[in-house]
Amino acid sequence: MIRISPRRIRRLLGVLCCLTAWPVSLLAGALPQNQGNSPASQTQTTQSGGTITQESRQAAAPVRIPRQQALTTTALDGIVRDAGFSNITIPVPGARLTLRDLQSGRTFTGTASGEGVFRIFPLPAGHYELRVEAPDYSTFVRADVTLNANEVLSLEISLVTVAAAEARSRLPRQPDLGPALSAEAPASYGSYREFRHRLDADPGYIENLSPDTLPPVADVYNALPDRWALDQPDYRRYPQKGEYAYTKPHWYDPFNRNRFKGDEPIWPELLGQQVFLNVTATSETFFDGRRVPSPSNVSTARPGSSTFFGQGEQAFVDQTIRISFDLFHGDASFKPIDWRIRITPEFSLNDLDVRELGIVGPSVRDGTNRFDNHLGVQEAFLEVKLHDLGPNYDFVSARAGIQQFNADFRGFVFVDEQPGLRIFGDLHSDRIEYNAAYFNFLEKNTNSGLNTAHLRNQQVTLGNIYLQDFFFPGYTAEFVGIWNKDDGGLHYDDNGFLVRPEPVGQVITQGVGAVLHSLSVGYFGWLGSGHIGRLNVTHAFYEAFGKDTFNPLAGRKVTINAQMAAAELSYDHDWIRYRVSAFYTSGDSNPQDGRAHGFDSIIDLPNFAGGLFSFWNREAIRLTGSAIQLTSDGSLIPSLRSSKEEGQSNFVNPGIFIANAGIDFDITPKLKGFANFNYLTFMDTQPLQYILFQGNIHHSIGEDFGVGLEYRPPLSENIVLTGGASMLQPGQGFTNIYSDRTLFSLFGIVKFTF
User: Fold this and answer.
1) DSSP of 121-160, one letter per residue?
2) What is the pTM of this model?
3) Which of 17, 77, 298, 666 could covalently link to 575 via disulfide, CB atoms 3.0 to 4.6 Å apart?
4) How far apart are CA 400 and CA 165, in angstroms?
5) Phi and psi at residue 196, in whole multiples of 5°?
6) For residues 526 and 566, what is the distance between their CA atoms, to the nearest angstrom?
7) What pLDDT score was predicted for residue 32?
8) Residue 519 in 3-state DSSP?
9) How far is residue 583's CA from residue 614's CA, in Å, rounded to a whole number?
10) Mean pLDDT along residues 623-637
11) Cα–Cα distance measured from residue 239 to residue 230, given in angstroms and rounded to the nearest whole number
């Protein structure tokens, strides 16, 4: 048996392969070669005796692979960041890069993206000057940047802000730094790091260049009918309920995107992309339980009672529903609207329950309870922008119809919703605001205070101007002028009481009847509101002048010269605001001398000296023994008028001085607390003595204490719960007129807004 080892087998196979390859190579050398397909060309030289073949090693023209760039170009890329942050990368978006070829002078530019990334490609190889510029940053300059062929230079450039560069330039130069640079050398701030790599090392760097032609729009964008129709994805990260992103809108949800809250065009197919509708619905429930001075009148509700003052406890409930439809054309944000139509009806259901007769109506047969309802139109106007005054949205607009207007910061003289024409706008980037208006008053419903459809003979013309940052940053000054023309006439309110003229004094002339009179009164005021440093400041001064053709209390024609002043200082410390204030109106010391010095407003609603949480401010106190009021609800002035809304201003009154101190507490972001104290005193009591036929009435009214809470459950104005309690401890003057019995009030307001 013959054994052959594997090594011998491998040697035998190698010999056979060599013997086979030798004849094949001889045969291939004898065949003619195709020069077009060979990488080397051949030349033939003919001589006697045969042909000699000479092979040339010169290469033919190279064949480029499709989409392969010639490797003579170069590229520059990288990122531009802020040098002020070393631990994190803050990009500098929009930085502009300029490359200037030092040999040819040709320039190439590029811009950094929102992430600070830039890329300039392709570029010819050579030497360049690099300049990087960005807003609010110092210019970075590198005098010589070498870009080699087939190379990518990646730079990480750190820019220095202008403020930091200026601070650095002010530092004294150290001697060991050498001589300062010449003035011709370009100033450069910042730093950089570089990294170089081959251009052909990443084929995608070349292949991912932007194509010469853009793809079809349908392949890139999702076309929508309008920008408002973009639906949010149906996504909820957490299963629990809460306020999360991607909330689906609903017509009944005012907190998220809602077509009926002005968040998107109301009818884009018909009205276009800039017409919006904002529907605001408000339900307000007001309850007030109080004890106020009440006379027993000619017939008491308690048989056998012989006291002059009766039971003064009363309960009042008012439920109002107000719906506002606001259709406007504009951008629904910061730009002033182009035109607007607003209609706001309001419906009131109110009930009054008292314990004495002759209060709900002049007849004792009306009983002690009154239930009433009324529907009024509180807003109905058209507003048009007349002209744009500049690029900063300064404008002038006109508004005609029933509209709300407040003549000053705190509502001292005129606050109402009346038909009128108003021109308004701003100047100097909204630093100056102005109003010019004319109002022709409507009669008011007695029990709700809402508008009726009947005109009354009263017109008000006014103009005011607000100047922001007046002498002090954060302080706004106002100058206002008002003219009130009230022809009065004869008018009984909805309960049957005579309110114009006031049923007091010599208003009734034997054989003639009620003596009608008219008022022509002007007001000029200077007011301010804002802060001076840490101190919050509010102040006001009004001068009233004019005439009354027949004042019922004076029994004659009077000229008017009266003043009002108010000031409030407050200081915020952590979650508490401390405030002190004073309020003053002049009084009339001689009711019959033909000169009226008691100040009175047109229709006021002052948010001052405690506001709602002051008994004197919130409650109306009837002057017993007459058919007029010592003070009206929602007023600080003891004006002795029959009604604030339906009566006429009376400038023969005692005047008042109020010293106030209070504290406001931000207990939580949702809960606020209020504490208030007022000391009240009459300025002159002669008008009261004249009406009541009573001498020696003291000036002191008493002390007014009040506390309250305001709670907003959703941390917005959509649900607001307000409640408070206040009391008036009578002083000597108030006791002379009424009694020393303590007066009190408990109230609550529940307000829902959609």
Assistant:
1) EEEESEEEEEEEE-TTBPPEEEEEEEE-TTEEEEEEEEE-
2) 0.71
3) 666
4) 56
5) -115, 140
6) 11
7) 42
8) strand
9) 13
10) 88
11) 24
